[in-house]
Amino acid sequence: MHEWIANPPWYVPTVFAAVAVIFLMQGNNRQNAKLKYAGLGCAIVAALIYGISHFLESPHERVIRQTHELAESINRRDWKTFSDLLDPKVTFWLYNGKQNLRTGAEKSAENVGVRNITLSNMILKNEPGSYVIDFSASADIDRAGYRVPTNWRFYWDAKTYLLYRIEHIPNPNFGNDAVFSRLVRPGSS
Q1: CB neighbour burial string for 147-177, b if at least 16 within 10 angstroms, e if fewer
Q2: Which is higher by pLDDT, 69 or 58?
Q3: What would the CATH number be for the domain defined by 59-180?
Q4: Where are the domains of the chain?
Q5: pTM to 2 decimals?
């Protein structure tokens, strides 16, 4: 329900606005106060729907924002923000737990020289208890000497909005081996 209130379909406020215009015009032409008030009421409802959706962040918008924040935290090497977005029991490849992943991400980002991460092609799905977002990420990799495209799947908890699982989705250009071979193994320097 919150998603519908915070992010209503575009046509909902548009229909109310159109009905408001029709009622106001008809009320004015016929000098009918009831039609004018009905038009004014519809205009207020349209403005309220637009205003609420503009100022209230929906769960989907929050998940998308936090996915961007996670990528940006890697770009800035802001490991506190990175860690704050992770569930204590987050899992990715050989990394289990927030501290383990944070340490691995720090070492791997420096080791490979990840810079300028950009996200695109985001597809968000609701699953029981979570939001799953598939997206493409491109980054400049100093060690590779070129921009590398990768695909990812993040699982965000629907209650805490913390990232609890990360999966790399292989693509023809950059498979699992190409990603995992560049990551620092847990417990190594």
Answers
A1: ebebbbebbbbeeeebbbbbebeeeeebeee
A2: 69
A3: 3.10.450.50
A4: 2-55, 59-180
A5: 0.78
